Every structure is written in structure tokens, then in C-alpha cells.
Task: structure prediction
Amino acid sequence: MNILLPVFYVSTTLIIVFTATSYLLKIDLWPTPDKPLRTSLFLILGNLWIIANLYLAFILSIQQPSYLIFQSIIWKLLATLMISLSIILSLWAWKVFGLKRILGFKINKIITDGPYRYMRHPQYFAIALATLGLAILINTSYMLVFSISTIITFYLIALFEERKLSSIFGEEYMRYRRKTSLISLFIRKRKRT
Result:
């Protein structure tokens, strides 16, 4: 077994995740009408990184499989359910959020409809759920590395967005934060008296 390729994959993935998120926290890539191309470029590069990361993990899983414990049919059904739920949640969030907002053309109010009523970042939760389901379904350590690195990346991006939204919307966003969970549909904050 060639150990260099897996070591290269894992170390490169971790370096990219931490470098990109550190850079993201330092600069302002928030979507605004005066920066739509910059934001679109960031979205394209981010999606290309996810696709390249998934491709490498998949190729390594085929060439040098390193199997995990998720072999029973119960795990496969759970993984399929997770991926299905992530697709439904993602489509629901896209319907409520809309493409124009993602590209930075309408950021004038906090979205509190649909899944945003329960969590502040349903798209990121859907991605985390899908990648975890995929790691269980493929059942290799490389897919698990892909899943964990993707979850960490989107968690850090969610923290960046939290900071930016707090500075834009102030107390209104703080009230919304107190009523909702960061990325989980199942953990709802209790109202503080």
C-alpha cells in the first residue's frame, strides 16, 4: 500500500481548511451589491474545493480502501436517510433564501421563515448531514476525513457569518440568535427570561 498519497491527502486537506478559514475570518467577503463578482468567485472556489476534496477521497477509497465499522444494512439505511433529509432541507432552505440573496443582491432583512425559524444555517447543516451520510455509506477512512474537514470548514464559515450578521443587524440579530440554534434542527434554545 502506498502511504504517501493518503498522508498527502489528509495533510493537504487540513492545511487548506485551516488556511482558507483563517483567511476568510480576516477579510470581508460578505456578499454586497457592490461586490457580487468577488462573492461569486468565492462561492465557485469553495464549491470547487469541496468537489476536488470529494473526488480525491472517492479515488483513494477505491484504490486503497481502509474500511470503517459501518458495514451493516442498518448503517446503510441510516446513511441513505441522512442524505435524503439533507436534500430536502437544502431545497427548503434554497426556496426560502433564494439565489439573489446568495449572490448579494438583497441583504436587507434577517430571514426567519422556513428552516431559518429553527436554525440560522440550515444549508450548512444539510451539507454536514450529507457528507456524514456519504462517509457512512462509502465506509472508508478517506470519506470520513472528507466529511470531517467539510463539517469543520462550514462550521467556521458559520461562525464568520454570525459575526458579520451581528455587526450588520445588531440587536435584531441577537434576538434571532437567542431563539434559534446555530446549525442544528434538533437543538432549540430555550427562551431566557
Remarks:
- The two ends are 59 Å apart (CA to CA).
- The chain has a mean pLDDT of 77.
- Residues 17 and 153 are 6 Å apart (CA to CA).
- The domain at 4-179 is CATH 1.20.120 (Four Helix Bundle (Hemerythrin (Met), subunit A)).
